[in-house]
Write a structure and sequence with these properties.
With about 220 residues, the protein is an all-alpha fold. The protein has 9 helices and no strands. It is globular and about 60 Å long. Bound molecules: protoporphyrin IX containing FE.
């Protein structure tokens, strides 16, 4: 059951990354503005906004790609240097480009007040979780449990890019109007992914506690 769930999650993740990449190709082709940009009206022709969107989409894809192998225990034990390098790429792309450009785009986001607030909250959470996960590795006060917990949370926020689009497509097929669909998909993906992250962390901690209860010899 756990293996099936893991296989399904991996398939959704890889397929989601490929689909976002496919749907974003338009933004990289000069002269082909794509549906999302056309829909934005005046701001869609603004050079700063377009540069931010370009930086955002590129860094988002880089962050997703660099995160795909990070949860593999085999890779971590066999090639730890790869984990460290992918981690650096992830942290720099998320903290240095994805979140700052996302904050700028949020000022013009669809969905009025609640749409902007949702994206701002997503940006604050993603930034905070990623920074905490990174700081947990500081020399002298290295805390691996804290690193793993915060990186799970960071990854959960990052993959709202995938669950948002799954929700958006599902509600579209169910006939929901576009404005409501955008907000419901946004808030559901943030809330749903946050809950999934807390569930995964709790499960991991419980498993560790039960393993150490079996393996630690009793002293009394
Ligand atoms: C791996 C993570 C992410 C990827 C791959 C990604 C990708 C994208 C893409 C492709 C778009 C263009 C819209 C579309 O084609 O649907 C977009 C828009 C946007 N993203 Fe992200 N994104 C990610 C994470 C984030 C985060 C963490 C924030 C938080 C600040 C954010 C905020 C926004 C905003 C505000 C827009 C514009 C929405 C609008 O104008 O209605 N994104 N993103």
């Amino acid at each position: 059951m756990a293996t099936t769930l893991r296989t399904i999650s991996w398939m959704v993740l890889i397929l989601g990354t490929v689909l976002i990449f496919g749907a974003s190709v338009d933004y990289f082709v000069i002269g082909d503005s794509g549906h999302f940009i056309e829909e934005k009206g005046d701001v869609g022709g603004d050079v700063v906004w377009l540069a931010m969107l370009f930086a955002h989409v590129s860094s988002g894809l880089l962050a997703l790609l660099s995160s795909l192998l990070q949860f593999s225990r085999k890779l971590l034990s066999r090639i730890p240097a790869l984990h460290r390098w992918l981690g650096r790429i992830y942290v720099v792309s998320v903290l240095g480009i994805l979140c700052p450009s996302g904050f700028y785009l949020a000022l013009f986001a669809k969905g009025g007040f609640w749409g902007r607030l949702g994206f701002l909250l997503l940006g604050v959470l993603t930034f905070h979780f990623t920074l905490q996960g990174f700081l947990a590795l500081r020399r002298g006060s290295r805390d691996m449990n804290r690193h793993i917990e915060f990186m799970i949370r960071s990854f959960a926020m990052l993959t709202t890019a995938i669950t948002f689009r799954i929700g958006h497509l599902t509600f579209y097929l169910l006939g929901m109007d576009d404005a409501t669909n955008y907000l419901v998909s946004l808030w559901l993906s943030i809330g749903g992914n946050a809950l999934l992250a807390e569930w995964a962390i709790r499960r991991m901690l419980n498993r560790r506690t039960s393993i150490s209860a079996i393996t630690t010899p009793r002293t009394t």
